[in-house]
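Action item from last meeting closed. Structure (206 res):
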């Protein structure tokens, strides 16, 4: 299965649009038939979701739960989904698979951008992975390391608080996985988890 990341462009499709979900702007070129194929929160079989929960978080948590069951992973303490995208979202499920709650903080690029836009002295930069030096001398390297370390600390604190099976997804999931594997060897990494979940929901709906 291949996933393409970019702006919505229906011209890239080889066939009919099978289904879609969105938490942002809806592509203007969608037909009325395509609009009927939208996957919304009510289509996600995840108990306990409040009506304002983003469908991306619900799909990701449901996909992590169903895959954990298929892999016979330990869900006795529930599930902890960390989506490392524009926003770092943390979603917790109970041992029974119900939505409990979560946390939201700015993601890797958004935190770096906040520093460059919110100060006069800190430089613009290319958004790249940080090095392994814990206390870099170079300013840009120090910014990158500091942001990633802050994100890692948030995830570790969430792990201590809930103890759930850890799933990492999203564009910066690999960055977090590199830092967390030593302390969380059982973590599950799937950057495309939401998209796989969306595909599963489309498949189930026929």
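Sequence:
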């Amino acid at each position: 299965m291949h996933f393409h990341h970019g702006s919505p462009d229906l011209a890239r499709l080889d066939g009919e649009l099978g289904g879609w979900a969105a938490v942002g702007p809806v592509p203007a070129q969608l037909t009325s038939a395509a609009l009927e194929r939208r996957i919304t929160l009510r289509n996600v079989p995840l108990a306990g979701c409040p009506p304002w929960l983003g469908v991306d978080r619900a799909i990701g948590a449901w996909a992590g739960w169903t895959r954990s069951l298929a892999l016979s992973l330990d869900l006795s303490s529930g599930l902890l989904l960390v989506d490392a995208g524009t926003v770092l979202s943390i979603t917790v499920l109970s041992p029974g698979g119900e939505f409990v709650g979560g946390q939201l903080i700015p993601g890797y690029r958004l935190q770096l951008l906040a520093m460059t836009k919110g100060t006069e002295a800190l430089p613009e930069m290319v958004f790249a992975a940080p090095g392994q030096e814990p206390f870099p001398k170079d300013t840009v390297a120090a910014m990158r390391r500091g942001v990633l370390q802050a994100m890692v600390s948030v995830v570790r604190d969430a792990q201590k608080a809930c103890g759930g099976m850890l799933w990492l997804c999203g564009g910066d999931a690999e960055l977090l996985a590199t830092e967390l594997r030593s302390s969380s060897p059982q973590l599950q990494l799937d950057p495309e988890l939401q998209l796989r979940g969306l595909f599963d929901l489309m498949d189930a709906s026929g």
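Note appended to the action item: The mean pLDDT is 90.
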